[in-house]
Design goal:
Layout lengths: L28 E4 L9 H7 L10 E6 L6 H9 L18 E5 L17 E6 L12 H13 L2 E7 L9 H17 L9 E8 L7 H18 L15 E7 L7 H12 L4 E2 L19 E2 L8 H16 L6 H40 L9 H20 L4 H52 L5 H23 L10 H51 L19 H26 L4 H26 L2 H17 L15 H13 L1 H6 L12 H5 L28 H4 L5 H31 L1
Parallel strand pairs: 2-4, 2-5, 5-6, 6-7, 8-9
Antiparallel strand pairs: 1-3, 3-4
Helix pairs in contact: 1-7, 2-6, 3-4, 3-7, 4-5, 7-8, 8-9, 8-10, 9-10, 9-11, 10-11, 10-12, 11-12, 12-13, 12-14, 12-15, 13-14, 15-16, 15-20, 16-20
This protein binds guanosine-5'-diphosphate (GDP) and magnesium ion (MG).
Guanosine-5'-diphosphate (GDP) binds next to helix 2.
Length: about 750
């Protein structure tokens, strides 16, 4: 407990600066001192005596009466309090200001029907004869106002011999009470709380029955009320609109000590909670209130934990002669207390939530988002507990203020939880997408290892389901019933969209892998079949040896037609394979179109490389030599010639040589026989699909005539041997041919020599 501001203190209270202890409050607590200062430790007292925790289950009684009429003595006997009492020898005022003490007799074992109410607080108000305060009526008025604003029961202590003395000091006091009451409730017409005026008649001799005394008092009270000048609007009000009355008489304490004690005991049993016996209003007799005197309607409805603050506010208004406005005071109190309670419950909330916030912040700081364990449950419980704790304490205060502050608290909590939950979902999102991507990749890898034809679309679908489920479970665990912002449908939607984007990327990669496989296949097929076509050059007979030549025979002239044909057929087949497979993993038509376009381009590259390989110096020279030798050394029937000196070796040589030399221009350009021009490569490759992203296609080699901006024409693309290479080849071939010729010549001569 921290004491409220002690600015107004004048050092009068011994406890200022130190934490007050229970022992210091033996005699109760002086709420208001002689200097009219309010004691800032009242709440401490209420805490120490456990009243503060009682909610509405407490009662406030004040006692009024002339000085030295045995008020403090009565309270001490009734409630076991230890208010200061005037000693028999010094006739001096003892009670100064207003003292308050908790009933010390409530724990006394008594039958249920006689047991005192819980948490009775008794206020002993300074006597009002004004002997030591001169004729200053100010304090009397102020303390009456204070007592009325707070107390349920006002005990009016009066000697029997004072009854009926209309001019007596007591009546002056009552007049003040009534006036003050009218002033007080002028502003508080709705709640209009009633109080009980409990007359305790002291030194009752017994000659006049209580009933008579009661009637006399009631008549006097009515007179006083009538004589009051009432504020506007309340002219017609009656005394019974504000007060109930009860009466009790006690014997002389000194003369009849035992009887005094038993009667006080009896009186004590009336300080219980009770209900009004009859519904009708009017002046209530002792009999009607025979049960407990604490009726609910007397209660000021200030929660015990706010009482000190409320009383302080009331006293402040009174001391500064401001019009007391109880509803406003109650609202102010509600605001103050609700704020205080909010702070308290938020401290508990912090204990639960701060570590989570710190863990999350740390994760963000080191760039490692992690999903906090059990966050939904922890958050939900903390939220519920905090709001519940607030409700228990704060709901006793002004309804409107309470409702508003509850909303404020909820939004304070929700701001914190929202940040946490967003962070949590971001983490769930990021880790979910990452593990989805990993899972798909490793399933694909596993599929590849097994060599099986794994179904990419199935893998994606299955892993997506798992990933969505994970996220959904997390998002659902964060949901709180009746809290709309905890519905995370849109985040779920974003997550699914991201998964789809990742799937698309993975599918693209998968497409690339497929493309690579198909390209490899194309490469190996072309390697074989194109190689074969070039090998045919070596035979030099260009298919002449095929016996049944009914169909158009393959000739050296249509080499390129055959290659083009083999090429396009192979690629066609590859395309079919590609499309089939791509469709199996849900590739879009766009993606397929791009894939095919790439495949054709790459395949052309493969072919081009293969052709280059075939016409490499050594290779092509060998082929030409074979071609030439075939023509030169074999006769039309394919039988090897045995050279004789008579043979026209030179003629055959020239013929074969020219025939082979004629191949060189043919080989130099990729030309189709029919058009004597290059194949329509741009047409065959097709236009670039619109969805192609140039960034993705950096691995593609430019093709002359297709990629015009490369500045290479189709003619150049189709040039297999450059002019220089051609010349060089002719020279080299001739040398080789000459060698063969010389050899043939030699063998012809040698054959004869043998
Ligand atoms: P207070 O000023 O009203 O609080 O009065 P106190 O309780 O201090 O008592 C004032 C004097 O009245 C003391 O000397 C008491 O002994 C005496 N006294 C207390 N009770 C009674 C009573 O019932 N009858 C009479 N005659 N004297 C009492
Ligand atoms: Mg006293």
């Amino acid at each position: 407990y921290t004491a409220p501001s002690v600015m107004s203190m004048n050092g009068h209270f011994a406890s200022v600066g130190n934490a007050p202890t229970k022992e210091q409050y033996e005699h109760g607590i002086q709420v208001i001192d002689e200097e009219k200062l309010f004691n800032p430790h009242l709440n401490t007292y209420l805490q120490l005596t456990k009243v503060a925790q009682s909610g509405f289950d407490y009662h406030l009684i004040s006692v009024f009466g002339s000085q030295s009429t045995g008020k403090s003595t009565l309270l001490n006997n009734l409630f076991g309090t230890q208010f200061g009492v005037m000693s028999e020898t010094e006739r001096r005022q003892t009670t100064k200001g207003i003292w308050l003490s908790k009933n010390k007799r409530e724990d006394i074992k008594a039958p249920e029907s006689e047991r005192m109410a819980n948490n009775i607080l008794v206020m002993d108000v300074e006597g009002t004869d004004g002997r030591e305060r001169g004729e200053d009526q100010d304090f009397e008025r102020k303390s009456a106002l204070f007592a009325l604003a707070t107390s349920e029961v006002l005990i009016v202590n009066i000697w029997e011999h004072q009854v009926g003395l209309y001019q007596g000091a007591n009546m002056g006091l009552l007049k003040t009470v009534f006036e003050v009451n009218l002033q007080l409730f002028l502003k508080d017409k709705q709640s209009n709380p009633r109080s009980l005026l409990f007359f305790v008649i002291r030194d009752h001799i017994g000659a006049t029955p209580l009933a008579n005394l009661r009637n006399t008092l009631l008549a006097d009270l009515t007179n006083i009320w009538t004589s009051l000048s009432k504020p506007k609007g309340l002219e017609k009000s009656r005394i019974e609109d504000y007060f109930d009355f009860a009466f009790s008489a006690l014997p002389h304490k000194i003369l009849q000590p035992e009887k005094f004690v038993t009667e006080v005991e009896k009186l004590g049993t009336r300080f219980r909670r009770g209900q009004r016996a009859a519904k009708q209003h009017g002046l209530h007799t002792d009999h009607e209130l025979d049960g407990g005197i604490f009726l609910d309607e007397y209660h000021r409805r200030i929660p015990a934990d706010g009482f000190a603050k409320y009383a302080e506010g009331i006293w402040d208004q009174i001391v500064h002669n401001k019009d007391l406005d109880l509803p406003t005071q109650q609202e102010l109190l509600a605001q103050f207390r609700c704020d205080e309670i909010t702070r308290e419950v938020l401290e508990e909330f912090d204990v639960a939530i701060l570590p989570l916030e710190e863990e999350q912040a740390e994760g963000i700081r080191v760039g490692k988002l992690s999903v906090l364990k059990d966050l939904g449950n922890l958050g939900k419980v903390a939220r519920l507990k905090t709001i519940k704790a607030f409700e228990v304490e704060a709901s006793r205060y002004h309804k409107g203020v309470y409702a508003r502050k509850r909303v404020e608290l909820a939004s304070k909590i929700d701001v914190r939880l929202k940040a946490l939950y967003q962070g949590q979902l971001t983490a769930a999102h990021k880790t979910g997408v990452a593990s989805f991507s990993d899972a798909v990749s490793s399933a694909v890898k596993a599929g590849q290892k097994k060599g099986a034809l794994y179904e990419f679309a199935d893998i994606v679908e299955c892993e997506k389901k798992t990933a969505l489920k994970h996220f959904e479970v997390e998002a659902k665990s964060l949901a709180i019933d009746g809290v709309p912002w905890t519905n995370f449908k849109s985040q779920y939607g974003l997550y699914e969209k991201d998964l789809d984007e990742v799937s698309a990327t993975l599918r693209k990669e998968e497409m690339r892998r497929l493309a690579t496989r198909v390209e490899r296949w194309v490469r190996s097929r072309l390697g074989e079949s194109v190689g074969l076509e070039f090998n045919k050059l070596g035979s030099g007979r260009g298919g002449h040896s095929v016996p049944e030549d009914s169909v158009k025979p393959a000739t050296e002239k249509d080499l390129w037609d055959r290659i083009w044909n083999v090429f396009t057929t192979t690629v066609k087949e590859a395309e079919t394979r590609f499309v089939e497979r791509a469709k199996s993993f849900d590739a879009s038509q766009d993606e397929i179109d791009v894939g095919l376009w790439r495949l054709r381009r790459k395949s052309w590259g493969v072919l081009r490389a293969k052709v280059d390989e075939e016409v490499m110096e050594g290779n092509i020279l060998l082929k030409l030599r074979e071609n030439f030798e075939d023509k030169f050394r074999y006769d039309e029937a394919g039988v090897p010639r045995i050279w004789r000196p008579t043979d026209d070796i030179e003629g055959l040589y020239t013929k074969a040589k020219d025939s082979t030399l004629a191949l060189i221009p043919l080989l130099s350009r990729f030309r189709l026989a029919a058009t004597y021009g290059p194949p329509d490569l741009p047409e065959w490759i097709g236009s670039t699909p619109s969805s192609v992203d140039p960034k993705d296609e950096e691995d593609l080699t430019p093709i002359g005539g297709v990629d015009e901006e490369e500045g290479k024409s189709l003619e150049e693309e189709m040039t297999v041997l450059s002019e220089a290479k051609r010349q060089d080849l002719v020279v080299r071939f001739k040398k080789t041919a000459d060698g063969v010729y010389v050899e043939a010549k030699r063998s012809a001569i040698g054959g004869v020599a043998q």
